[in-house]
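User: Fold this; tokens only.

Assistant: Input:
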Amino acid sequence: MGNYILVISVLIVMVISLLIVSNFEGMLHKYRFQFAVLRSMGAQTEQLFKMVFIQCTVTNGVGVLSGLLVSLLGYTYIIPWISGLFLVPLTDSRFDVGVATMVAVASFIILELFMLIPAYRSTEILPLKMLEMNQNTDFKGRKGRKTLGKVLMAACLFFILFGIVFSGTPSANPELSFLIGFLLFVWSVFTMVPVYLPGVLAKVSPVLKLLGGRVSYVAIKNLVPQVKKNTFVILTISLAMMIAVIGSSLLNTIQHNDRNYIKKQYAADIRVVDRLESSSSIDPDQLKQRISQLEGIEEVSTVSRLSPAKKENGERVDYVLADLDELAAQRLLPDISNVTNAVIVSKRYAEVHALSIGDPIRLSVYQDEDPENFKNAGTLTVAAITEPIQSTDMYIDWSNAAFHTKFTVFGTAYITPVNEIAALNQLEGIKGQFPTVDISSYAQALENSSNMYTRVWSFFLSAIIVIMLSVTIGVFNSLINNIYSKRKEFAVLRAISVDKKGLVQIILTQVLLYLYIGMFVGVTLGIILLYACRLIDTSPIHINAPFVAIIMGIMLALALAVFIPYASSLANKKVASELNHSHV
């Protein structure tokens, strides 16, 4: 949970950084004439850089201090309320000022590094460039951006291939290599998307013209030169969607894996274990006899903890002692005729060692602490091959005394009840004789897992709400500033042939297209990274598609709720007034 919160926090800082950069980019575009006048009056590039950077620094400083204060108040008043709401006990209610200050300082430094971008852009504004009223439709240094994107992609492939080749070498740290490769992949995509996007839009615009009509075509053509200025808007949406996809899918995957783990741990409806684990002193026969005397118990079997053994070739193998007949009666293991010198092996072990029913296995067991001192325990016959009920490869019956060693201690009792609730109540009575036992049922374990998942999901949902609200407000603000700066262009379109309804359609088309592009890139990158993570952990991935769809739907609904009234208000303004208005 701590690592997860750390990653989410870093991503939030990056999202906020992109939003601030996007808004400062809009500010520079809006006041470009004023900057040009300052340059013509003799202002040096260093002075403009300092002026913009100081503004950025003051904004970041006020924001970080405000966030630190809100965190203190929230931890004091809001966190206890959330803890009570989701039944999450707080082990330490003290606000760690030192850690909070370190996080605030680190966030401030990261934000300041991002602020170098608009500060540097302010030095590029020259008086002669203001003579061009149309925006430059091409990226400055397009070839350089393409080259950088290709270099990053090549480096990404190198680190991933390095991790694959040295995946069996712990000293090579392949996980770190994979992580660097994933980050380089995201960086390369973010570098190349705004470069290639105008060309893609230009090629698909005829298709969109057929689907959406002439007005949509005009909206797309008008959008192409704005891609450069709104790059950070697209990247911000993409990063937020990556957080939603990866975070929700990881939690969904954890839930599925946890349920599968519980299912493996609870082969029967009720399980009894010793909290002392390998130090258990419980006699399995006494425990089995005591449980069998209780009412409502249909079947009971016991299994030991793992014990080590060696084969003739020196290979290490683990086995457990168990009540093979009782486990067969509970349908947990196959029924075999003679359990005395029999062994049941797992399918995995049988496939690896080419074993079949009837094959002999000669084993030696350890006698004391010296791992080299072991004795021959005899030859066993493979009586059955099955899926294991525990993480072990061999099951031997308790009656085989040769395999009783100092490692042989009680592990688990599997109980099949007539009525689960009544049986659990009856089993509470054995704690007087066996005080260290822990009694639980499959249903209880699933319920506890579900409750824990709900608590973690609630914290994640709170983080996602904060992220998406921040992104939505910032993106909508950037798009509104962009639309405002284009009021003259919209007025010209209205004067030529576009009516009020058409202008609203143009604005909505552009806004929704930005959202669709950002969502598509973010969701695609999130899915790719999720499956790429299987290079590190081969567990199956369970993508939470409903949650991602809800997030996208809410963002689109908010866009319509905000921009339909805003576009309508622009469409209702007089054309002559808009044409004569001085936009900066």
